[in-house]
Specification:
Strand order of the largest sheet: 7-8-6-5-4-3-2-1-9
Radius of gyration: 21 Å
Largest sheet: 9 strands, mixed
Order of helices and strands: EHEHEHEHHEHEHHEEHEEEHEHEHEEH
Number of strands: 15
Mean pLDDT: 96
Helix content: 25-40%
Distance between the termini: 31 Å
Shape: globular
Length: 370
């Protein structure tokens, strides 16, 4: 089975830390939706007729799409593809968009999973991040979503915020656990070049949180969520049994997917394509019949490196059966990580230890092939 990812490149306002592709002007939203539908038609054969297991609306902020715009996209999906009756269909949303009316409209649509960008329940943190919502809206939208009938709900949190504290982070985790959703994503705040936060740090107006502070909050989250019945199936993702994100898990398992919209990536095992990250140029390319995208052929070494990078972050780990061509090379490199206690081996599968989870990217890089 395969999946489709839609990148909806619009936000009401720019979060200070975000480096995803988006625009804060909605002037060409209609044109963008038309182009997305047109690209879907143009690239419908990319997945070779395989049934869709997942559909994911990310961004940006997909919850800014109107009921009519979502219907327009879904109508085209169901015309062009066979969608599994149990397909996971996710829409990322900001709490301020999820009014009772909006939630009711979404419940009538094919969307069956909400990924809600809460980030924090503390007003000072939300304002520092320049989020468009407040804590009250977060609590209300989750309760409303449940009352309307959504059972598959994920919440995003951010830790490692410099102005915060361990006490506030623990409170965020406790309040999240109390809401009893099936899935929680917990991300460390990162300072990215080109963002407002990145420029402030560069100019000395803000400082990055110390690594030790960030690691301590990471460990606190793992412990508290584990005690509450959530298992960490990927570095940043926690779920109650049976509520893992199928779409994201398929990325980590290297299943094929089609990416639609500006900046979206597509993958079909042998190659990857990347749409241009520019709204006007994306629309122009699609409407003229010449999509502005780059294609990369994935050779054996690249495939191995990507497998290592993604699988090492998960509970599925690196299985020697999957890397036969690089087996000897891997065993030589991983011996160093075993001695360092970053990795452990269980039945031919290599996974990160608790200590190794602090250094997931560094560990993967040490295993890469040139």
């Amino acid at each position: 089975m395969s999946g489709i990812y839609f990148h909806i490149p619009f936000c009401k306002q720019a979060c200070h830390y975000c480096n995803f592709h988006f625009s804060t002007t909605m002037k060409r939203k209609d044109d963008m939706v038309d182009a997305i539908v047109q690209e879907l038609r143009m690239r419908a054969d990319y997945l070779d007729g395989s049934e869709l297991e997942t559909i994911y609306f990310g961004g940006g902020t997909p919850s800014v799409l109107s009921e009519r715009e979502l219907d327009q996209i879904f109508n085209e999906i169901y015309k062009l593809f066979s969608v599994n009756v149990k397909a996971e269909i996710t829409l990322e949303a900001n709490p301020d968009d999820l009014s009772k009316l909006k939630l009711s409209q979404l419940k009538q649509s094919p969307v069956n999973r909400l990924s809600i960008g809460v980030q924090s329940f503390h007003e000072a943190e939300l304002q520092w991040m320049n989020r468009a919502h407040n804590a009250e809206e977060s609590l209300a939208c989750i309760e409303d979503a449940k009352s309307i009938g959504f059972t598959n709900i994920s919440m995003d949190l951010i830790f490692g915020i410099p102005l915060s504290s361990h006490k506030l982070w623990k409170e965020n985790v406790r309040r999240t656990i109390a809401l009893d959703v099936g899935h929680i994503s917990s991300y460390a705040l990162t300072v990215e070049p080109g963002t407002a936060l990145g420029r402030w740090v560069e100019k000395g107006k803000e400082v990055e949180a110390p690594d030790e502070y960030v690691m301590e909050q990471f460990d606190m989250g793992i412990q508290m969520l584990g005690e509450a019945g959530y298992f960490q199936y990927e570095i940043s993702n926690f779920a109650k049994p049976g509520w893992e994100a199928v779409h994201n898990s398929n990325y980590w398992k290297s299943k094929p997917y089609l990416g639609i919209g500006p900046s979206a990536h597509s993958f079909n095992v042998g190659s990857r394509s990347m749409n241009i990250a520019h709204n006007a140029k994306y629309i122009s390319g699609i409407t003229s019949g010449t999509p502005d995208l780059e294609t990369e052929i994935i050779d054996a070494t690249t495939r191995y490196n990507e497998y290592v990078m993604t699988r090492l972050r998960t509970i599925w780990g690196i299985d020697l059966v999957d890397i036969e061509e690089f087996r000897d090379y891997f065993l030589e490199k991983v011996a160093v990580l075993l001695r360092r206690n970053w990795v452990e081996e269980k039945g031919g599968v290599y996974i990160l230890t608790s200590e190794g989870k602090h250094f997931a990217d560094a560990a993967a890089m040490e295993l890469f092939a040139e």
